[in-house]
Amino acid sequence: MNILIITGGSSGIGKAIAQKYTSENYTVISISRSKALTVNYQQIIADLSSISNTIEAIHSAFDNLNLETISSITFVNNAGSLGEVNTLGNLDSKKIQDIIQLNTTTPLVLANEFIRFTKNLTCKKQIINISSGAAVNPYQGWSIYCASKAAIEMMTKTIATEQNELSNGVKCIAIKPGVVDTNMQIQIRNTPQSDFKDVKRFVELKENNELYSPEFVANRIYQIDAQNQLENGAIIDIRKF
Ligand SMILES: NC(=O)c1ccc[n+]([C@@H]2O[C@H](COP(=O)([O-])OP(=O)(O)OC[C@H]3O[C@@H](n4cnc5c(N)ncnc54)[C@H](OP(=O)(O)O)[C@@H]3O)[C@@H](O)[C@H]2O)c1
Description:
With 241 residues, the protein is an alpha/beta fold. It is built from 7 helices and 7 strands.
């Protein structure tokens, strides 16, 4: 049995990934606040900006699995949010905390739990972290998002060096999906230029049909996972790969 556990499988990139792996006969479990309709994978409802809900959700996902029958297991840290878009000095402090919790703390907590739960498995074990060009390019108005994605990339490299010490370690990679036609891009395009200086660029990408579809990104991620050719700790950009 091949398993995929993914956060944020209710919409956008996460939903497309969950559907792709389901079509490849994986057992798929998604964790998000709402459920995608008319899909046939398991969906656990949880607010991943709450640490207690997060831990409960991942335990519930593993409770439903018989680890003895697993031939591969992939965990995708996908759920994320841009949060409030504005320059520092104009942000709500509690909202900063919530987005760092969702985008950075939760992926670390879930990676910790995933590694713990799968520690005795000798099958293929993979964590895929969904990163962004914003991990390395500073965008005015996106300080929380940029910082959280930079953290995701360093977390990826650190897990890889730790797990490389083990004979049955987890492979951990990060993937920048490019600019993808999802709700997150709608939020970006709807931000006033006074709060987000680069908004015009994202409006033009949409007008020029230059966004990837979530399905295209999901197919590429599935291929990368199935081919299993990347080194542990690799960070790749789908636009260049
Ligand atoms: N779209 C792009 O151009 C782009 C580019 C680079 C990177 N990314 C990354 O791709 C990932 C997916 O984004 P997307 O573009 O597909 O956006 P999206 O359509 O807005 O999807 C976000 C997903 O995250 C889930 N989520 C958000 N807050 C949550 C919470 N508090 N608890 C549980 N789940 C939560 C949402 O589910 P619920 O609302 O049901 O909870 C949804 O399934 C993100 O990590 C994003 O940073 C996107």
